[in-house]
Structures are given as C-alpha cells and as structure tokens.
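Morning run. Coffee first, then this:
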Amino acid sequence: MASGKGFLDLVDFFDRWPEERQKLMAVVKTKSLTDEEAELLETMILIMDRVGPADLQN
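And here it is:
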C-alpha cells in the first residue's frame, strides 16, 4: 500500500478502487457538487468500474 496519501501506481489504485469508490460516491451524495460535477464524477466512476486486471497488463 502507498505511504502517505498518494498511490504507488495504476495497479495500486486499481487494488484500492473498491474503498476509493465508496469515498467518491459519498461525495456525490453530499450534494456539495453542482449537478454537472456530480454527473461527471458518476460517469468517471462508471468508467473506472469497467477497468479490469487485463487492462493493467504492460
């Protein structure tokens, strides 16, 4: 796991995605974002959900 707040690399981010996803969804639910920002973040989450181990090779 990465030290500090950052990620070691893309694989580290992928491994930590389930917990990071929950954090991002919590932000969306706070209603502190504009509708446009919330839609953008939700779309980015859906895209990240489609990434799998085969996408991380090379």
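Residues 10-56 form one domain. Good start to the day.
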